[in-house]
Design goal:
This protein has 348 residues and is of the alpha/beta class. The chain is 45% helix and 18% strand. The chain has 13 helices and 10 strands. Strand 7 and strand 8 form a beta hairpin. The protein is globular, with a radius of gyration of 20 Å. The two termini are 28 Å apart. The protein binds 5'-O-[(R)-(carboxyoxy)(hydroxy)phosphoryl]adenosine and zinc ion. 5'-O-[(R)-(carboxyoxy)(hydroxy)phosphoryl]adenosine binds next to helix 6 and helix 7. The site of zinc ion (ZN) has 5 residues, from helix 4.
């Protein structure tokens, strides 16, 4: 609808420079410039390289988003930006750009939480979020279960990883299997021709004792070590590694724990909808297993399309748009970039 506010969102928390433009829940543009290839040879994101890439990509990405949406910057009603959490220097580039735009255009500025944006983006694809919804966010930097009663102010953490993030585990295991960075998509692809029950890898924090203290928490570092040991032992014994079987068995272990705990968390609160976001939500096995397990408990699952699961500007615009729609007060122009912003701080 033309009378809904036009919101521009800027995301620079990691290695993607994203600029998204939405009107209400309608996505008009989602321009992303990624510096992932510059980090590939280091096997992980190098913060200084990411910050410099954001600086170079910001204006061209803004231009591209406006062109795609068929708008001029002066048409925008509000600016939203990821204020945190993320890499400090990277966040700073986006926050500085958003402040400059807000000031120059004399439009309200909303500094929003990156994690909450991963949840809000689903509205662009599947319409208004059910409330409450259980959100499982799984990416290179985070793995958390959140109870969301109102995406603009009511996000309660239920559990999180106590060591590696789910995507980090995918990336590390891919590396030891000789697959390129980022490893998630490669493991996903390779696993399709493998046997997921070939190797019985451990399921972290699922023993009865662990469940008492960590019912909704995750741990993936033991799994990563188990994969490394298994590969080492096979090589020592002169056996060749079936990469597809290792990838499939590893992926099965991750997806098993994630989906089991997400469904348990939703059931425990009587929540009937699960939303999965973050880069790992693009995983094909995770999607299928989540659907099956949730359906068995009468729970619905919403997963945005892969391009909206990984970091992008549309998700920030989506949350900003919701802030405007619900009349939340805009941020101050001295809004900070906060690398360790807690998930409960949805609007800064
Ligand atoms: O959300 P994202 O783009 O960036 C942040 O970390 O915030 O997520 C990137 C992560 C990487 O670890 C990548 O390996 C993982 O998401 N990933 C996947 C898949 N696609 C991306 N993991 C498993 N399966 C996939 N298909
Ligand atoms: Zn993210």
């Amino acid at each position: 609808m033309a009378d809904e506010p036009l919101v521009l969102g800027i995301e620079t928390s990691c290695d993607e420079t994203g600029v998204g433009i939405v009107r209400g829940h309608t996505l008009l543009a989602d321009a992303v410039a990624s510096s992932v290839e510059e980090h590939a040879r280091f096997g992980g994101v190098v913060p200084e390289v990411a910050s410099r890439a954001h600086l170079e990509a910001m204006v061209p990405t803004l231009d591209r988003a406006c062109e795609t949406a068929g708008i001029a910057l002066s048409d925008v009603d509000a600016i939203a930006v990821t204020s945190g959490p993320g890499l400090a220097g990277a966040l700073l580039v986006g926050v500085a750009a958003a402040k400059a735009l807000a000031l120059a255009l004399d439009k309200p500025l909303y500094g929003v939480n990156h994690l909450a944006s991963h949840v809000a983006v689903d509205q662009l694809e599947h319409g208004p979020l059910p409330e409450p919804v259980l959100a499982m966010l799984v990416s290179g930097g985070h793995s958390s279960l959140l109870e969301v009663t109102d995406i603009t102010e009511g996000v309660t953490p239920m559990g999180a990883t106590i060591d590696d993030a789910a995507g980090e585990a995918f990336d590390k295991v891919a590396r030891l299997l000789g697959l390129p960075f980022p490893g998630g998509p490669h493991i996903d692809r390779t696993a399709r021709s493998g046997n997921s029950v070939a190797i019985d890898f451990p399921r972290g924090l699922t023993s009865r004792r662990d469940l008492e203290r960590h019912r909704f928490d995750f741990s993936f570092s033991g799994l990563k070590t188990a994969v490394a040991r298994w590969v080492e032992t096979e090589q020592r014994n002169g056996r060749s590694i079936d990469v597809a079987d290792v990838a499939a068995s590893f992926q099965e272990a991750v997806c098993d724990v994630l989906t089991r705990k997400a469904v348990d968390a939703a059931s425990s609160r009587g929540i009937e909808d699960i939303m999965i976001g973050g880069g790992v939500a693009a995983n094909s096995r995770l999607r299928v297993m989540a659907e099956e397990r949730a359906a068995a408990k009468g729970i619905r699952v919403r997963v945005p399309r892969p391009g909206l699961c990984t970091d992008n500007g549309a998700m920030v615009a989506a949350l900003g748009s919701e802030m405007v729609a619900r009349g939340r007060r805009p941020s101050a122009l001295d809004l900070p970039a906060d690398s360790s912003l807690p998930v409960t701080d949805v609007l800064v």
